[in-house]
Amino acid sequence: MRVSSSAIASSAPVARAGDLLRWYDRHRRRLPWRADPGEAADPYRVWLSEVMLQQTTVTAVIPYYERFVSRFPTIQSLAAAPLDTVMSAWAGLGYYARARNLHACANVVTTRGGFPADLAGLQALPGIGAYTAAAIGAIAFGIPTVPVDGNVERVAARIFAIDQPMPAAKTAIRQAAAHLGADPAAQARPSDFAQAMFDLGASVCAPAAPACAVCPWIAACAACRQGTQTLLPRKTPKKPRPVRYGVHFWLTDNRRNVLLRTRPRKGLLGGMTELPGTAWREAPWTLDEALTLAPMPLNWRPAGQVRHGFTHFELIIDILAAQTAKIDAEGFAHALDALDDAALPSVMRKCVRMASG
Q1: If you ran DSSP here, which 8-state letter would residue 286 be given?
Q2: Tell me, which fold does domain 243-356 have in CATH?
Q3: Is the pLDDT of residue 4 over 70?
Q4: Which of 82, 175, 299, 351 is the most buried (most CB within 10 A)?
Q5: Which of 50, 153, 289, 314 is catalytic?
């Protein structure tokens, strides 16, 4: 059932922004990209954190963020860096189109002299969609808007007991979040209100075990009154992910080099570095088929198998290994001792660990 704004306004329990903001002032998370109370947020750090946090948890992002900012302390330093250097620094975070867009956006922002301070201007930048524009706008520029991420979806769905399954419920949830953000107290502190919503969803209104007893909005939560808070937002059952298969080759030489190659710029893991290998397909590869695509005609031996989950499919990789006196194949030789510096995505780092372990 679609929930209209008028229905929210007339039937919703009262969840006052002031109550949430008082809770936030006492319990706000300390995050490396977050400004201290009374300080202005740095748009570069807000933007960088929001891009990193897409499809990734806060806990996983923090060490990457700290290393990235240490390497690129300003947007100008990021724009000036070669794309391959940026991709290498991003390696392990996944969704590598984000890194390419990050670099492109840094160049646009540097050229124009700074981030635009309006939602339309932000959304026109490379890699910035409606949510990221709203997050940067609210947190860095004080625009009175509520960015709706997974945490905010959960809070809004529970406060208003929106029981329509996802993703169909997203429209009603966005309306509910906007209604919460229309409170004068939220309008007066849009940056804090947006981050308070994030923190409430992350630390109190958790997915499986919400800590309702300490929630500043417990009295206003319709789902809590109904006892349905752990059921919301309702998820549509996921279909099993299809499985794909590939073979990758671990070829080393007597000078402690390994053969690597660069993936095409476009497509999955575009522009990243990998071990040479076959295409990823729905049917398993036979050994004879795989050997026709080996980088050199050598005595290849099995070196293990790696499983890796992508968003839309599961990948199973068989690894074949060989050694030669000198690498003479398409790609480039890279020192084994310097593999940490290579722009290897997570799936390839798994392959490296398997082959070299």
Answers
A1: P
A2: Nucleoside Triphosphate Pyrophosphohydrolase (3.90.79)
A3: no
A4: 351
A5: 50
